[in-house]
Specification:
This protein has 216 residues and is an alpha+beta fold. It contains five helices and eight strands, in the order E-H-E-E-E-H-E-H-E-E-E-H-H. The chain has helices spanning 19-29, 75-83, 98-107, 168-179, 205-214; strands spanning 4-14, 33-38, 48-56, 61-69, 87-95, 117-121, 124-133, 144-149. The longest helix has 12 residues, at 168-179.
Length: 216
C-alpha cells in the first residue's frame, strides 16, 4: 500500500530581496493565488527570522521563504548561500494518518526533527512532521522532508499547538537542531536488508484506472 497521498506543498528558499519577484512569477505567470503573506514569522527573535508567502494552485501549494538577518544569518540565508536562489528547501507530502506513518518511520530507523505540530494555515487545520535533513550536515543547509495530514473533519478535536504564526514551528525546530549540533541524516539505511532487490515494474495507478474505465 502507498502511505503518501500527494504532494501538499513545495517550499522554495529565496535569496535576499527576491521573494516579491518569485511571488510575481508564481502568481502572474503560473496563475497561482496568494493566500497568506507573513513578512516576519518571529519579530521578537533578536537573532533571525524569515518571511513566508503561501501560493495556492488548487491541488497543491507553494511556500516562498526569505531570510531575515539580525544578529545572526537566518537559516534561510545560510541555505540560499549554499544552494542559490529559489532552491527547494523541502517538499511536504500528504499522508493518510500522520501518527501511524510516524511509527512507520521509527520502525525503519528514520529520524524526525521534532514532535509533530498541529496548527492552522490558510487552508485549515494541518498536522505537520518535519524530518532531519537528507545529508549529514547542519540542518540549516540540507533539504528535508515534511509529512502532513489534513483532517477531513473541519471540527477536528486536534489540539492547536502552534497557530499564532504559520511557519514559526518548523523554523524553531531547525534552530534548536542547529544549536544542539544534531547533524545526523534522516536515514542511514540501517533497516535496509542487505539482499534487498528492486521490485518488478508496476503499472501506474492512473493507467490502471484509465484502462478499467475504458473497458466499461
Amino acid at each position: 500500500m502507498t502511505w503518501l497521498v500527494k504532494v501538499d506543498h513545495i517550499t522554495y528558499a529565496c535569496a535576499s530581496g527576491m521573494i516579491e519577484k518569485w511571488a510575481w512569477f508564481h502568481i502572474e505567470v503560473e496563475g497561482g493565488k496568494l493566500i497568506k503573506r507573513i513578512d516576519d514569522i518571529d519579530p521578537h527573535n533578536p537573532n533571525s527570522s524569515m518571511k513566508l508567502w503561501c501560493i495556492d494552485y488548487g491541488s497543491f501549494g507553494i511556500a516562498l521563504i526569505e531570510g531575515i538577518d539580525r544578529k545572526e544569518k537566518s537559516q534561510v540565508t545560510l541555505f540560499t548561500e549554499l544552494h542559490q536562489d529559489h532552491s527547494i528547501q523541502h517538499v511536504a507530502y500528504e499522508t493518510k494518518n500522520l501518527e501511524q506513518f510516524q511509527e512507520r518511520l521509527a520502525n525503519y530507523k528514520c529520524d524526525i526533527l521534532g514532535e509533530p505540530i498541529t496548527k492552522t494555515d490558510a487552508l485549515g487545520i494541518i498536522k505537520q512532521l518535519f524530518c532531519r535533513g537528507y545529508s549529514p550536515t547542519t540542518p540549516a543547509k540540507t533539504t528535508f522532508a515534511e509529512y502532513v495530514e489534513r483532517p477531513k473533519n473541519s471540527n477536528s478535536d486536534s489540539k492547536i499547538t502552534f497557530s499564532q504564526q504559520v511557519g514559526k514551528g518548523f523554523y524553531a525546530q531547525i534552530e534548536e537542531a542547529i544549536a544542539e549540533e544534531k547533524y545526523q541524516p534522516f536515514t542511514e539505511f540501517s533497516a535496509m536488508p542487505e539482499n534487498w532487490e528492486p521490485p518488478k515494474i508496476s503499472e501506474p495507478e492512473s493507467t490502471r484506472i484509465s484502462n478499467q474505465s475504458g473497458g466499461k
